[in-house]
Amino acid sequence: MVDPKRPSVFLFIGIEDYLAEKAIDDLRSSVMDDASKELDYKIFYGQEQTSREILDCVKTFPFSAKRRLVVVKDCERISEEDTARLIDYMKRPSNTAYLVLRTKDETFLKENPEVGRYVTVRRFGAFSDYELKGWIRQFFSLRSKSIDEEALTSLKELYGQSISLLVQELEKLVTSVGSRPDIRMADVEELSVRIVAKSAFDLTYFIGRKSLDDALSLIHDLMLRGKKTFEIIGLLSWHMNRLLRAKRLQEKGESDSSILNVLRVSRLQAREFLRQAGFFSTAQIESKLKTLLEADIDIKRSKFDPRLVLEFACLRLCL
Asked: Residue 89 is part of a domain; what is its CATH number?
């Protein structure tokens, strides 16, 4: 339950939409039931509504909920005049409503530092690798499941760029294994890896051959088939990470058969996988993974059109 004595205005900052939306859902559930949602829960967008519209809604007495909940997304796009009105409200907020301001980065708070004195600030940044693995383990633990390290690493590399997408895949895994208590690498392969592997192989092949037109054509085809930009970045990052592991094992003197066994590369893909590992040096793969990470961050922060970000990243990868 939400503490009724806590400030009535919240500032949610960060690029992880899933975590921020879950926090909003938790706040909503603490003050209203589903029947109250239609009347006492409202979402505004900073570039579309004025502060007068927002504050009129906030100051309206709730119809049936304990408090109204008003969420303003993209609050950094609110005009200076409207922001000033909202700050005045923050100093003397209503005790019958919660106001949540949502933004992807620190811009709003940096431009309006006094806001920090009147609101509860919560940050929803990207997980570190360690935190993400812990979060996945906790997800399964809450459902009486465990997951082995190899399966965990594969899920992180495939879907770690988007928590919302990751949750969808985790839920599919829970359903697919039924009453069995453990999640194995074979389960991940059956459900996910085989679906994306061919596209990852093909895209990496075009990048290795510096064939930009072919790479862009495949990306556009994947998007037409419903793949999101961050999903394409995820599958390419997953494959590049596997190639990087292969290169490091080669540097340690491991045989090809040992590498293929460790990375669980299928016999049908073995020859192409080793050939692609030869396309790049370790340093080149690390550089391309950095390019993909930068593109992922730009997409999450919504500064640019996601498709253009991905296309520009593809251009850099093919250089």
From this structure: 3.40.50.300
Q: Is the pTM of this model over 0.85?
A: no
What the block records as the tokens of 278 is 């030869």
Query: Would you call 206 helix, strand, or coil by DSSP?
Result: helix
Here the tokens at position 291 are: 């390019």
106 with 138, same domain? no
Q: What is the CATH number of the domain that holds 308?
A: 1.20.272.10
Co-location of 74 and 174 in the same domain = no
Calpha distance 246→275 (Å, rounded): 11
The alpha carbon dihedral of 238, 244, 245, 247 has a sign of: positive
- Domain boundary among the residues 123, 145, 169 is at 123
Paired sense of beta strands 68-73 and 41-45, if any? parallel
Closest CA to 30 of 98, 101, 89: 98
Measured at the CA of 134, the angle between CA 228 and CA 154, to 5 degrees, comes to 50
Per-residue pLDDT tens over the stretch 69-121: 999 999 998 999 999 999 999 999 999 999 999 998 888 999 999 999 999 99
Q: For residue 186, is it within any domain?
A: yes
Query: Do 31 and 2 contact (CB within 8 A), yes or no?
Result: yes
Buried b (16+ CB within 10 A) or exposed e, 215-234: bbebbeebbeeebbbbbbbb
Domain hosting 230: range is 129-317
| Integer Cα distance of 276 and 270 in angstroms | 10
